[in-house]
Amino acid sequence: MALTIGNITLSHDAVLGPMAGVSDLGFRSLARSYGAGLTYTEMISVCGLNYRNKQTEILTTVAPCETPCAVQLFGHDPEDFAKGVRAEVIDKFDIIDINMGCPVQKVVSRGEGSALMKDPSRAADIVRAVKEGAGSRPVTVKIRLGWDRLTAPEFALAMERAGADMVTVHGRTRTQFYQGSADWDAIAEVKRAVNIPLVANGDVKSADDYRRIKEVTACDGVMIARGAIGHTSIFAEVRGADVEVDLKKDFLFQMDMLSKTYSDHVVCNLLKPHLISAVSGRAGAKEYRLKVGAAKTTEEIKAIIMTL
Ligand SMILES: Cc1cc2nc3c(=O)[nH]c(=O)nc-3n(C[C@H](O)[C@H](O)[C@H](O)COP(=O)(O)O)c2cc1C
Question: How confident is the model at residue 50 (pLDDT cuts 50, 70, 90)?
Fold first, then answer.
């Protein structure tokens, strides 16, 4: 099913969630090759965007296959957002997403991420500031169910009134972090409260989960994050495609995509967490982890991939 966000229509309504330390260009490209309708960068602080540094450059580089592409910004000051969204590195993005869901203490203690759910008026000012800087590009917001109780229905409506073109809801409160299971019934309440497209998120690990979350929430799209780690083919499965996964081929593709953009050293570091999660739970995983950790060049990484 297609999903329309403002003036952009995605080829499919299943999208890859932003994940810090995971959603790099290689992983995103692999998810796109299996049919993900949209990919997001990991969360990027609005404060550093106007200063060109290596890390910002790594985080904001996108692959040609990522059309359309979304950047996710975080911060707490509407003025920082107004400046950040106008930074040159943001020009190439088709969709601007605002993080209002990150539960990490370091982030919320600065009033960023899910802390914004406690301050709807500041959150609305941020949406207005980003909208103004984004021009005709859609602006979306990613939230949780609330801080410590369900406030997402009224919060999402306030973001819509401030100009948001879509809301994604992770079906947990900030207090829950990642504990328990995502409350899809509560996401359904948020869907009923808004008129803009709503993307449901939380605990989708299979094509069957994808079908069920759509049924329960009546959402317009589904975001898959952890369920795609080591299982990017989930995006083909939700399309009903019969896929045969070749892990070696996938990792070589991922490495190739990264090598086109980054130095050997950066490619190694970006690939390591993916290689480690691919074998977790398998016999010999510990030795393998040590081998991956010790690798210093893509040649060494390639040799490890060939043993998968
Ligand atoms: C390692 C990791 C990093 C994450 N980083 C981000 C991030 O940068 N921005 C964001 O909005 N959500 C982030 N999330 C949350 C996911 O996008 C998603 O909302 C959450 O994991 C629930 O969905 P899932 O059950 O499909 O994983 C992260 C999650 C994980 C596990």
Answer: confident
Cα 236 from Cα 289, distance rounded (Å): 28
CB hemisphere CA count around 26 (13 angstroms): 28
Ligand 1, pocket residues at CB < 6 Å: 17-22, 42-43, 72, 99, 101-102, 142, 170, 201-204, 224-227
Question: Residue 206 CB: number of other CB atoms within 10 A?
Answer: 14
Q: Please state, in angstroms and rounded to a whole number, the distance separating the CA atoms of residues 105 and 232.
A: 29
Tokens at 161, concatenated: 């009134």
Percent of the chain surpassing pLDDT 90: 93
- Per the listing, tokens 């509407």 go with 78
Domains recognised in the chain with CATH numbers? 3-237 (3.20.20.70), 247-305 (no CATH)
What pLDDT shows up at residue 278?
86
Rounded distance between C-alpha atoms, residue 123 and residue 129, angstroms: 10
SS3 9: strand
Q: Is the pTM of this model over 0.85?
A: yes
Please write the tens of the pLDDT for every residue from 77-99.
Answer: 999 999 999 999 999 999 999 99
Looking at the CA of residue 113, tell me the nearest atom of ligand 1.
11
